[in-house]
TrEMBL record:
One of its GO terms (cellular component) is cytoplasm. Its cofactor is pyridoxal 5'-phosphate. This is Ornithine aminotransferase. Pathway: Amino-acid biosynthesis; L-proline biosynthesis; L-glutamate 5-semialdehyde from L-ornithine: step 1/1. One of its GO terms (molecular function) is identical protein binding. PANTHER family: AMINOTRANSFERASE CLASS III (PTHR11986), ORNITHINE AMINOTRANSFERASE, MITOCHONDRIAL (PTHR11986:SF18).
Length: 447
C-alpha cells in the first residue's frame, strides 16, 4: 500500500469510528467497494437517483433495530409503530430467533424442493398442528400466498365443484389489498395500483366489504369457486367489520359450496390479539393465507393452509417456488410460532385495548374523530381541515415515532405485538404531542 493510500485508509477509519460506534461500517466497507456516504440526506438523494420510484418513504434512514426501537444514521432513536408493515410482530432482532438464524444459516439455508431437507418435514408437521389444517403450501411473499390460494380455489372449482372449464369466478371485496402482482391489481379498486397495468385477470368479481346481502347475491352464481377477503382490511385503513360478519361469511360459503379464503397476511400471527382474526368469531376459513412475520421478519415467508379435500388438487408440477419451504425460513417459522404463544398474543389484546382507550380519551375529537382497530392493528382518522395523515406522520417522526399513512385519511399503528406498557406509554405521549403540534401548525397557517 502506498503512503497516501495508507493515510487515506487511516483517515477513513477514524471518520468511520467517529460516525458509527458499531461494526456495521466495517462490514459495509467490505460489501461496498465504492465510496459511500453516511448522512440521511446523502443516502436519500442516492436512493432517489438510482432506485425505481415505487415508494414514497418517510424521510428517515434507519440503520439499526432492536425490539420496539430503531435508530437512524445520525443515531436518533425512534419507536417503531409500523414494524415493517406489521411484520416484526416480535420486534427487531429478537434474540432467540436471531440465534436460530445464525445457526441454521451456517448449516443449510437453501436446497430447493428438488430434494427433501431435514427441516421442512418438521415445519409442515408443526404448522399444520398449530393451525389445525391437513396440509400447508409454503411460499415466500404474501402476494404469492394469495396467488397460490386463488390457483387452488380455481382448480378445486373445476375438479371438485365441476364448474365448466375456464368459467370459475373468484369474489373479492372493494378496497381489498393483497399485493402487487397482475392478479392482485386486477382485483384492486385503487386506480394508483391498477391503472395502465391491463389487460386484467378475468373471472374476478367485486362486492362491498362487510355486506352479507351483496355476498349472498354474488355467491348465487354457480360458477363462483371462492370468496377471498381480509378479516380486517389493513391497507384500506384498518376497517373492522360488524360483529357476526365472519360467521355469516362462513355460513353463506357453506350454503353455496364456495371456498372461503381468509387473507390473514396482516391480521394473522397474533396481530389482532388472537392467533388469527377469524378466531374472534370462532370460525375457520377453507383456505388460510399467512405471511409477513412468519419467519420472524428476518426473511420473507408465507404459507397457505387447507384440508386434504381442497389442497389435494395441487399435484407435482402444478405449483412451486424456488425458495418456498427453504430450511432457513421454515426453521425460523417454527421458532417464531412457538414464541408467539409465549405471551405475545395476549399482550397484543391488552396493549391494543389500552392504546385505543387512551387515544380516545386524550386526543381532541375535532382533530382525530376516529380511533379504530383490534389488538395491535389500529388506525386513527385525521380531520382533513387540519392536514393530511402524511403531515401528521412527519410530526410523529419529529417526536420520535415512526408510522405510515394508509388509504383515505387514516394513519395506521402496527407496532410489535410484544411491546411493553412503558414503550406503549412512551408512544402515546409522542402521539399526543405530535397531534398537538399538527393541529397548532394548522391553526398558525389559518391565522
Ligand atoms: C392483507 C395483505 N395481503 C397480502 C399482502 C401482500 O404481501 P407482500 O407484500 O408480502 O406480497 C399484504 C401486504 O401488505 C397485506 O396486507
Amino acid at each position: 500500500m502506498t503512503h497516501s493510500a495508507r493515510i487515506k485508509t487511516m483517515a477513513l477509519e477514524i471518520i468511520s469510528k467517529q460516525l458509527f460506534k458499531h461494526n456495521f461500517v466495517s462490514s459495509l466497507k467490505k460489501s461496498f467497494p465504492v465510496c459511500y456516504t453516511h448522512s440521511s440526506s446523502d443516502l436519500i438523494k442516492k436512493e432517489s437517483k438510482h432506485n425505481a420510484q415505487n415508494y414514497q418513504p418517510i424521510p428517515v434512514v434507519i440503520k439499526k433495530g432492536k425490539g420496539s426501537y430503531v435508530w437512524d444514521v445520525e443515531d436518533r432513536k425512534y419507536l417503531d409503530f409500523l414494524a415493517g408493515y406489521a411484520t416484526l410482530n416480535l420486534g427487531h432482532a429478537h434474540p432467540e430467533i436471531l440465534e436460530v438464524l445464525k445457526e441454521q444459516a451456517g448449516i443449510l439455508s437453501h436446497t430447493s424442493r428438488a430434494f427433501f431437507n431435514n427441516i421442512l418435514p418438521e415445519f409442515v408437521e408443526y404448522i399444520t398442528n398449530y393451525f389445525n389444517y391437513d396440509r400447508v403450501l409454503p411460499m415466500n411473499t404474501g402476494v404469492e400466498g394469495g396467488e397460490t390460494a386463488v390457483k387452488i380455489a380455481r382448480r378445486w372449482g373445476y375438479r371438485v365443484k365441476k364448474i365448466p372449464s375456464n368459467k370459475a369466478v373468484v369474489v373479492f371485496v372493494r378496497n381489498n389489498f393483497w399485493g402487487r402482482t397482475l392478479s392482485a391489481v386486477s382485483s384492486s379498486t385503487n386506480p394508483t395500483a391498477y391503472e395502465d397495468f391491463g389487460p386484467y385477470m378475468p373471472g374476478f368479481t367485486l362486492i362491498p366489504y362487510d355486506d352479507t346481502a351483496a355476498l349472498q347475491e354474488a355467491l348465487s352464481n354457480p360458477n363462483v369457486c371462492a370468496f377471498m377477503m381480509e378479516p380486517i382490511q389493513g391497507e384500506a385503513g384498518v376497517i373492522v367489520p360488524k360483529d357476526g360478519y365472519l360467521k355469516e361469511v362462513r355460513r353463506l360459503c357453506d350454503e353455496h359450496n364456495v371456498l372461503w379464503i381468509a387473507d390473514e397476511i396482516q391480521t394473522g400471527l397474533g396481530r389482532t390479539g388472537r392467533l388469527l382474526a377469524v378466531d374472534h368469531e370462532e370460525v375457520r376459513p377453507d383456505i388460510l393465507i399467512i405471511g409477513k412475520g412468519l419467519a420472524g421478519g428476518f426473511v420473507p415467508m408465507s404459507a397457505v393452509l387447507a384440508n386434504d379435500n381442497v389442497m389435494n388438487v395441487i399435484t407435482p408440477g402444478s405449483h412451486g417456488s424456488t425458495f418456498g419451504g427453504n430450511p432457513l425460513a421454515t426453521r425460523l417459522a417454527i421458532t417464531t410460532l412457538r414464541l408467539l404463544k409465549e405471551g405475545a398474543i395476549d399482550n397484543a389484546a391488552v396493549m391494543g385495548e389500552k392504546f385505543r382507550r387512551e387515544l380516545r380519551n386524550n386526543l381532541p375529537k375535532d382533530v382525530i374523530p376516529i380511533v379504530r382497530g383490534r389488538g395491535m392493528m389500529n388506525a386513527i382518522c385525521v380531520n382533513p381541515d387540519y392536514g393530511t395523515p402524511w403531515d401528521l406522520c412527519l410530526e410523529l417522526k419529529d417526536q420520535g415515532l415512526l408510522s405510515k399513512p394508509c388509504d383515505g385519511n387514516a394513519m395506521r399503528f402496527t407496532p410489535p405485538i410484544n411491546m411493553n406498557e412503558i414503550e406503549l406509554q412512551e408512544g402515546l405521549e409522542m402521539i399526543y404531542k405530535a397531534v398537538k403540534e399538527f393541529s397548532s401548525t394548522k391553526m398558525q397557517r389559518r391565522a
